[in-house]
Write a structure and sequence with these properties.
By secondary structure, the protein is of the alpha/beta class. The chain folds into three domains: about 180 residues, FAD/NAD(P)-binding domain (3-Layer(bba) Sandwich), CATH 3.50.50; about 110 residues, FAD/NAD(P)-binding domain (3-Layer(bba) Sandwich); about 110 residues, Enolase-like, domain 1 (2-Layer Sandwich), CATH 3.30.390. About 30% of the residues lie in helices and about 25% in strands. Strands 1, 2, 3, 4, 5, 6 and 19 form a seven-stranded mixed beta sheet that branches. The chain has a five-stranded parallel beta sheet with strand order 8-15-9-10-11. Strands 20-21-24-23-22 form a five-stranded antiparallel beta sheet, sandwiched between helices. Helix 1 packs parallel to helix 4 and helix 1 packs parallel to helix 9. The longest helix has 25 residues. The chain is globular, with a radius of gyration of 24 Å. The chain starts with a strand and ends in a 7-residue tail after the last helix. The mean pLDDT is about 95. The structure holds flavin-adenine dinucleotide and nicotinamide-adenine-dinucleotide. The site of nicotinamide-adenine-dinucleotide has 27 residues, from helix 6, strand 12 and strand 20. This is Dihydrolipoyl dehydrogenase.
């Protein structure tokens, strides 16, 4: 059996693992990365990137459809609108291909050795990989587990046939006429909205009383309104019970405890993701857990010396940029640098229509933590740029300590607000006070002016409302 001995072994080449390996390679650490599927992980292959490509295509199509129907508010007319889903999917696959081959190139450039196959632990420092050319043993001083996550299924609705996860939804050959989405969280609403814009009749079934339960009602309201405009039916406090006998419909227990039957060509189950901790011998290592996730400390160390864990396998928030930040930090720790997790916030974006972006604490969270706060909220309906783009729904909100004006959180809902996430995170990381934001010149006309206005409003002297 072939054997490789290295300083650092990274298992999984998703955003966590590949960033860790690249940084380690740059720092001169002799690094091997093992990937059983394609480099780029969930994010590049079946997650962030393909979903955003589909969301963009669907929005472009929806705009053209409105024009073709003579409903363009800005006076543009076109004769006809059609979408060729196979071509759209081909375009999306092209982007995925470019990015995943880019990851391989970056790994090679950083002198990281890539081994293709599934890594199975033999002991804490040794894995065996079944490669195309035979079994390979890899021994390392340090191991980073970056095995990611996979979709959760429901006992009453196992994946297969009409019941699909986000992975299949991102590569459908035909547009489902009737799509039922079970789970009104990130994936269900991002993809449900995209399919509705492409022409599917969409129903969302959410178990809790509110869709996107991680966000406060003010942020969710514009999204809910748009779902209604798109004809998406939303059933909250509803439970999916299982398929009808012929498999053509989903039985649902609605909020009033009445059973409803929802006809469906496809049922997209998006009720969360679970850490990938089986199939790689991890069970044998008996690492400490935090619920189903691997327990880590502020340096991403697990309970076993020399074994680190990063990304989705370590729990919420399961976001690509968190995984990447952990990966970069762990590489530097392995290189001997003094690092620990010291981030003030992990911004989050939900790519619904309109988009939601959050960084730090919401007003409710700040109060729950005992802060006395000032809140400033500025609507896009008073922002010139938003009006010129014919999308003036939503607002920017800033939350600050009442005693010092230190910014505790920033949130926004509106078209394109994902791009405000960096400004929000900068303000948080640099310990901005309301006066810092209010005193910064924000270019005109841009949506970002709403951030300055929200800060001014919290200080009691907004200019444009
Ligand atoms: P993963 O990306 O899951 O990568 C883990 C890798 O490890 C995989 O390639 C897997 O094949 C490999 N692996 C597992 N076990 C082994 C083994 N034993 N041997 C070898 N290889 C192994 N996040 C955002 O921040 N923004 C978004 O817009 C966003 N959109 C999303 C949309 C969808 C539809 C989905 C499903 C997810 C989305 N996410 C988004 C979440 C994001 O994809 C994850 O947070 C991110 O991919 C986690 O990175 P990771 O490196 O921890 O794991
Ligand atoms: P989620 O946690 O965002 O949403 C799951 C939803 O399903 C929740 O609203 C929950 O109440 C509901 N639910 C749970 N069980 C149910 C049941 N039996 N019937 C009906 N509803 C039920 O999970 P997700 O949408 O699957 O996404 C998984 C993870 O992927 C997210 O937590 C997020 O970290 C990541 N993600 C991020 C983005 C982004 O950053 N834009 C996009 C997609 C996914």
């Amino acid at each position: 059996m072939k054997e490789i001995v290295c300083k650092l072994l990274v298992i999984g080449a998703g955003p966590g693992g590949y960033v860790c390996a690249i940084r380690a390679g740059q720092l001169g650490i002799d690094t091997v990365i093992v990937e059983e599927s394609k480099p780029g992980g969930t994010c590049l292959n079946v997650g962030c990137i393909p979903s955003k490509a589909l969301i963009h295509a669907a929005e472009e199509f929806a705009v053209v459809r409105r024009m073709a129907a003579g409903r363009s508010p800005i006076g543009i007319r076109v004769a006809d609108a059609a979408i060729d889903l196979a071509k759209t999917i081909g375009w999306k696959d092209g982007i995925v291909g470019r990015l995943t081959s880019g990851v391989s190139t970056l790994l090679h450039k950083a002198n990281v050795k890539i081994v293709h196959g599934r890594a199975v632990f033999r002991d804490g420092k040794t894995v065996e990989v079944e490669t195309e050319t035979g079994a390979q043993i890899i021994r390392a001083d340090t191991v980073v587990i970056a095995t990611g996550s996979e979709p959760v299924d429901l006992a009453s609705l196992p994946f297969g046939g009409r019941v699909i996860s986000s992975t299949e939804a991102l590569s459908l050959k035909d547009l489902p006429e009737k799509l039922v989405v079970v789970g009104g969280g990130y994936i269900g609403l991002e993809l449900g909205t995209a399919f509705a814009k492409m022409g599917s009749e969409v129903t969302v079934v959410e178990a809790l009383p509110q869709i996107l339960p991680q966000y406060d009602a003010d942020l969710v309201r514009p999204v809910l309104r748009k779902l209604g405009e798109l004809g998406i039916r939303v059933l909250t406090s509803a439970k999916a019970k299982g398929l009808s006998g012929d498999g053509n419909a989903l039985f649902v227990e609605a909020a009033d405890s009445q059973e409803q039957q929802l006809p469906a060509d496809r049922i997209l189950v998006t009720v969360g993701r679970k850490p990938k901790t089986t199939g790689s011998g991890l069970e044998e290592l008996d690492l400490d857990r935090s619920g189903p996730y691997l327990r880590i400390d502020e340096r991403c160390r697990t309970s076993m010396r020399g074994i680190y864990a990063i990304g989705d396998v370590t729990g919420e928030p399961m976001l690509a940029h968190r995984a990447m930040a952990q990966g970069e930090m762990v590489a530097e720790i392995v290189a001997g640098r003094k690092r620990a997790w010291d981030k003030r916030c992990i911004p989050a974006v939900c790519f619904t229509d309109p988009e939601i972006v959050t960084a730090g604490l919401s007003p409710g969270e700040a109060r729950a933590q005992g802060y006395e706060i000032r809140v400033g909220q500025f609507p896009f309906s008073a922002n010139g740029r938003a009006m010129t783009m014919h999308s003036d729904e939503g607002f920017v909100r800033v939350v600050a300590r009442a005693d010092s004006n230190l910014v505790l959180g920033l949130q926004a809902v509106g078209a394109g607000v994902s791009e405000l996430s960096a400004t929000f995170a900068h303000a948080m990381e640099m310990g901005a006070r309301l006066e810092d934001i209010a005193g910064t010149i924000h270019a005109h006309p841009t949506r970002s002016e709403a951030i300055q206005e929200a800060a001014l409003k919290a200080l009691g002297h907004a200019l444009h409302t």
